[in-house]
Structure formats: structure tokens, C-alpha cells
Write a structure and sequence with these properties.
Layout: H1 2-11, H2 27-36, E1 43-47, H3 51-55, H4 67-75, E2 85-86, E3 89-90, E4 92-105, H5 106-109, H6 129-135, E5 139-142, H7 149-158, H8 176-187, E6 192-195, H9 197-205, E7 211-215, H10 218-222, E8 229-232, E9 244-253, H11 260-270, H12 273-282, E10 286-287, H13 296-300, H14 304-311, E11 314-315, H15 323-338, H16 344-360
Parallel strand pairs: 5-6, 9-11
Antiparallel strand pairs: 1-9, 2-3, 4-7, 4-8, 4-9, 4-10
Helix pairs in contact: 7-8, 15-16
């Protein structure tokens, strides 16, 4: 960030920029306090699942009239656009993206999918949930883990043709597709181990798991792994395509900022394709610009082509203001199913009921 700001200062020495850090644990709370006390920053970095809560509250500036920033929206994946919008208007610019893929330990599994073996994510049209379960012994199953469990569960819903909300934002938790997805997720415990993401990451790096669904943060740790491994895109079930979870960082402007013009200039600068790419490479994430996602840095790094391919088949969280509360309900009910306190049917029915009550009361 320091080098990015230095470049901006050289081009715009008249615009001062001060940086304030926000942590994952209390960042959203600090921003909400800042807006309530009228001390929120001029420019904000927001997680993709945070934006709707702010944009729906009227505290973010509309960006519809800025041609340069509208171009940034045009250059980003279509699935990333709804998270930056509200009421048909643009409020937050997609900046960084990342996704998760299947990590495979070849030494444990002696992996052979329909006779095909590879070290760069080789897979066939038969790569599906049954194949993953067959070869995934032991498989890592993310258990209760705040802000993480839902990211592991949602791809099973999407890749089974399901969804948690319909096109107008009404909950559809207890559909047959979603119940089947939870049954499969729960059923993986017959062939694996349940732990937190951190512990399962550690277990895979130590060579203790055959299959694990995780992100690019594992790549540096696996650089000197004493076993053979590769990655594969998340599989679909039946005739449904495999879709992974995509997370994103977005940039927005405080609607009450006294420096909106300067803030737009700053956003235009740091989201320029070359600046965005340089920053993304340094923090080991992907730029939102789809053209930059095929940069040689990503394609030449270990398993880079698999991650780039997965980004073409990924989704983000539903765009509803109550998402963070809904997220808690999802993780609570999935955890109850994992601990056999509820059946998958009961868990999804209760998820539906609790979500309906939440949205009715807010």
C-alpha cells in the first residue's frame, strides 16, 4: 500500500492520503461507529459481504456518473457486480477477488480419476461429487468456524443447482437441492475429519489429508511440501456445473465526505488496471479486472491456471442488508447437523424459519 500511495502522491501531490487500518474482527463495527459519529473515512475498503449493509443505508456515494469507475465495473466479472450495487446504482468498485479450489494429496490417494493423473489440476467430465468422495479419504470437513463455515457449505448448494435466496431476495433454504447438499456435506464425515479451517489447513500441509477445499493462502506453505499434490476446480453434482465461493474487496466513498472529488480521483488511480494488478500480485490475490486475471504471474505460478479457471465459475454471497446475520444462522444450523443435533432436513427447515423471522423483523 505504501508504494501504491507513493505513486499516487507523485501524480497528485495536492491530495493528502492518510491510511487507517481495520481488522477483520472489528472493522465493520468501527465503520458503523464512524458513520454514526460522522467521522467515517472518505474512502472505504469493504468486503463483498459487507457492502449491502452500507449501500442500503444511504451512507455510500453513488458512482454512476463517473465514467472511469463505470469502466471498472464493465471490466469485472458479472458475478461481482451485484455486490457493489443497490437499487440499480453503483456504490462500490470491485478491486480484488479470490476463490477456493480442491487441494489433492497425490501421495495419500495415488490419485487416478478415470485413469487420468496430473499435477496441474487435470480432470475429466466425470469429475463430480461421487468421484470426490471416492478419492477423498481422508477428506477435510470444515466444522463450526465463524465467517468460514458458510464459505465451505455454499459451493455445495450452488453446485447442486440450489440457492439460499430467490431472485427477489426471499429465502429458499429448505428446497430439495439444498437439503441434498447438506446431506452430502454431512456425509463426508464418514470419510474424513471435522475441524476448523486453520487446523485443516495445517493438517493438509503436514500431509494428513487426502482432499481439502481451501484457498491460495496455502500455496506458499506447500512450496516445499514433502509430498506430491495438485489442485482441481470444485465439482458439480449431476448435470450442475461446479461453482466455488468468491470473496472480494470493494472500494467505496463516504456519501458525506467533504472530499468526494478527490476520493474519486484516488479510486480511479488505484483501480487502474496496471496499479490494480501490481497491488494484487503483491498481496497474492486476483485483480477484479478479468483481463488481468490471465497475467503471466498467475498462469505461471503453481496451480495458477486452476485458480484462474475457478474464478470463471464462482459466486458471491446474496446481496441483502441482513446477510451477516443470516450468515450466523446458516453456520449455526449447519453445525447442528454436523453434530447430529438435527437432521439435514430439520436444519434446513429451521434455517428457513429463522431467516424468514429475521427479515420480517428488520
Amino acid at each position: 500500500m505504501d508504494s501504491l500511495l507513493a505513486g499516487f502522491h507523485r501524480e497528485h501531490p495536492e491530495i493528502p492520503v492518510e491510511v487507517s487500518e481495520l481488522s477483520w474482527s472489528d472493522g465493520k463495527t468501527k465503520l458503523m461507529v464512524g458513520f454514526n459519529s460522522e467521522t467515517a473515512p472518505d474512502v472505504l475498503e469493504l468486503g463483498s459481504d459487507w457492502v449491502a449493509q452500507f449501500s442500503s443505508s444511504g451512507v455510500l456515494a453513488q458512482l454512476d456518473s463517473n465514467a472511469a469507475l463505470l469502466q471498472r465495473f464493465s471490466d469485472a466479472p458479472k458475478y461481482s457486480l451485484p455486490s457493489g450495487m443497490w437499487g440499480g446504482h453503483f456504490f462500490a468498485v470491485p478491486w480484488l477477488l479470490d476463490t477456493r479450489v480442491i487441494f489433492v494429496n497425490d501421495d495419500i490417494l495415488s490419485l487416478s480419476v478415470n485413469g487420468t493423473k496430473g499435477s496441474q489440476g487435470t480432470q475429466t467430465s466425470q469429475w463430480n461429487w461421487q468421484e470426490m468422495q471416492y478419492i477423498g479419504k481422508p477428506i477435510g470437513v470444515n466444522g463450526p468456524d465463524q465467517h468460514r463455515l458458510y464459505k465451505k457449505f455454499l459451493p455445495y448448494v450452488w453446485s447442486n443447482g440450489g440457492d439460499l435466496f430467490d431472485s427477489v431476495g426471499q429465502p429458499t433454504m429448505n428446497t430439495p437441492q439444498n437439503i441434498e447438499a447438506l446431506k452430502f456435506y454431512f456425509g463426508q464425515l464418514d470419510h474424513g475429519t471435522m475441524e476448523s479451517q486453520k487446523n485443516l489447513d495445517d493438517a493438509f500441509v503436514r500431509g494428513k489429508l487426502g482432499i481439502w477445499f481451501s484457498g491460495s493462502w496455502l500455496l506458499p506453505r506447500l512450496a516445499k511440501a514433502p509430498f506430491k499434490w495438485h489442485t482441481m476446480t470444485f465439482p458439480g453434482n449431476g448435470n450442475n456445473p461446479g461453482e466455488s465461493f468468491a470473496g472480494g474487496e470493494y472500494l467505496a466513498i463516504n456519501n458525506n465526505s467533504a472530499m468526494k472529488h478527490e476520493a474519486e480521483i484516488f479510486l480511479e488511480y488505484i483501480t487502474q488496471p496496471d496499479n490494480e494488478l501490481a497491488f494484487a500480485r503483491k498481496v497474492n490475490e486476483y485483480p477484479a479486472d478479468v483481463r488481468s486475471q490471465s497475467d503471466t504471474f498467475y498462469l505461471h505460478r503453481r496451480e495458477g491456471s486452476v485458480f484462474t479457471e475457478q474464478l470463471q465459475h464462482a459466486r458471491m454471497t446474496p446481496v441483502i442488508p441482513q446477510w451477516l446475520d443470516v450468515e450466523g444462522i446458516i453456520e449455526d444450523e449447519v453445525s447442528k447437523a454436523l453434530y447430529k443435533k438435527e437432521t439435514p432436513e430439520e436444519a434446513m427447515n429451521n434455517m428457513q424459519r429463522r431467516t424468514e423471522e429475521l427479515m420480517k423483523n428488520q
